[in-house]
Amino acid sequence: MRKTLIIWVLIACQVFTVTGQENMDIFLKNPMTKYANIGILIKNVQTGLVIADYRSHNVIPPASVIKILTTATALELLGSDYRYPTYLEYSGYIEGVTLHGDLYIIGQGDPTLGSQKDGIGFFRQWTEAVRKAGIEKIDGRVIADLSYFDGDAFNPGWLLEDAGNYYAPGIFAISYMDNTMNIVLESGQPGTIARVAYTVPDVPGMTWENHIRCTHTEEDGAFVYGLPYSTQRYLTGSVPSKRGTFGIKGDLPNPGLLLAQHLTERLRNAGISVKREASYHSESDLLPRTRIHTHLSEPLGDIVARTNQHSINLFAESIYRQLGSRIAIPCSVHNAEMVVRNCWRNRGVDLTSATIKDGCGLAPQDAISAASLVQLLEYMWHSPNKDIFFASLPVSGKSGTLRSFLAGTELAGYVHAKSGTIGGTKNFAGYIDLPNGQQWAFAVMVNGASCKGKNIQPIIAQYLLDVYRRNK
Predict the structure, then answer these.
(1) Which neighbouring-strand residues pair with 39?
(2) Which of 296, 379, 393, 314 is nearest to 343 (CA)?
(3) Is position 313 within any domain?
(4) 0.85 cut: is pTM over it?
(5) Are residues 240 and 116 in the same domain?
(6) I need a surface site. Which of 4, 134, 165, 192 has the fewest CB within 10 A?
(7) Is residue 19 over pLDDT 70?
């Protein structure tokens, strides 16, 4: 009897192995991916049945796929209805119509202030709040208080070569205008240096070490380098020649200060005089203050949707820092990591083998397994936050960063997932809907391929189609 049982167990294991690897030839025989580090897990979330498993415990750089870990944590701990507050407060006292003190903007991590979607309509409310407080003159200044986050505005785990670029902006307690500026260049004859004409928005005091050349290239090959708080930016690379004006994106060196400068201008234009020029504090001055207005962001559920749909690093990293507030203020990336790990340890998701250095996936040390991601996805499928989380994910062939993925196939519209891309790496993690009403949670991760991420995408698409056709 025991011998028979062992034989049946061996047969079952053999069948399972074939099921897990039967479609792997598309990776293992392709010269671009045959030597890559690959991790795959596909699992039915209703039955627990494993559909495919290939080295699912390998830890692999997740790139932007880590955003599902960040956003799921925020939904679980903060709730989809959470709104970031930003406070207007003043120090000193009001005598008549004069504030003998300073007006403060107290940041609490809202990444959406003045963003492209939200705009700057809030300035009217802020100006009215100052007027309602009886203030017509400020003999001090407008101060941006950035002390809610610690001083590591540039994540210590990020590569220095990314600093200054729009996709790796400084992360502050006050974000403004997506922490991004458009640098408008004048493109001239081939071989000449492209002149910096202006920036949008205008940032007072910016200086440039400019080495961007105009060449016969047809694409933007320019790069911006610089550190948070510094108004010096180093420009290098190339742009197309003889194009007139040509825009490239960089980060805002101090978005909180720029917000304070813009509020000062708005107040003055509204007839409220401000004696001194705007400033900022990275550490709280601990002066007694009086609150006159609370600005609330849109609900976190909406911010999570924007984060995952469009893979916004600023939003993801700001959410990540905010999580650190559950341990201590000022918020730090170290505390944020502890919060993330504790959250999922308490929910039965194993992150023991994962390395978590940020919330957006820019840190090259980030690493996580397909098995951990699928555990997370399984949990969220049964979570009260399921609907918000599921709706935040891009849809294959339809929306967000998956608009071109699986487009025109039978899986178009049926994969809800987050993608992640860096050099030689392409990852997808999310859910697949089946015609019979079943759902799969999946993670397919490919790192170290001898090609760009965009060349890996069709290979992963074909793999998912093959598995789907065999098992639907």
Answers:
(1) 445
(2) 379
(3) yes
(4) yes
(5) no
(6) 4
(7) no
Q: 115-127 pLDDT, tens per residue?
A: 988 899 999 999 9
Query: Are 380 and 455 found together in one domain?
Result: yes
Tell me the C-alpha to C-alpha distance, in Å, between residue 13 and each of 9, 10, 43, 112, 303: 6, 5, 17, 51, 44
Separation of alpha carbons 338 and 343, rounded Å: 8
| Burial degree of 205 (CB within 10 A; 0-12, 13-18, 19+) | exposed
Residue 388 · residue 304 · CB < 8 Å:
yes
Cβ of 167: how many Cβ atoms within 10 Å?
A: 14
Instruction: Tell me how far apart the alpha carbons of residues 446 and 456 are, in angstroms, rounded to a whole number.
Output: 8
Any residues with CB less than 8 A from the CB of 400 and at least 6 apart, and which? 308, 309, 310, 311, 393, 394
- For 95-104, write each residue's pLDDT tens digit: 999 999 999 9
Give the whole-angstrom CA distance, residue 14 versus residue 88. 66
Which amino acid is present at 271?
G
Q: Can you read off the two tokens belonging to residue 32?
A: 């671009």
For residue 194, the 8-state DSSP code is: P
Task: Provide the token pair at 2.
Answer: 């025991």
Q: Is 214 left (phi over 0), alpha (psi -120 to 50) or beta?
A: beta
Distances from the Cα of 107 to the Cαs of 99, 129, 147, 299, in angstroms? Answer: 21, 17, 8, 17
Q: Specify if 11 maps to a domain.
A: no
Phi/psi at 161 (5° precision): -65, -15
Helix-, strand-, coil-residue percentages of the chain, each rounded to 5: 30, 25, 40
Q: How confident is the model at residue 22 (pLDDT cuts 50, 70, 90)?
A: low
> What string of DSSP letters covers 405-451?
TTTTSTTTTTEEEEEEEETTEEEEEEEEE-TTS-EEEEEEEEES-SS
Closest by alpha carbon to 224, among 168, 156, 152, 154?
Answer: 168
DSSP 312: -
From 251, 275, 290, the end of a domain falls on: 251
Indicate the length of the chain as a whole number: 472
305 in the same domain as 419: yes
Structure tokens belonging to residue 54: 């290939």
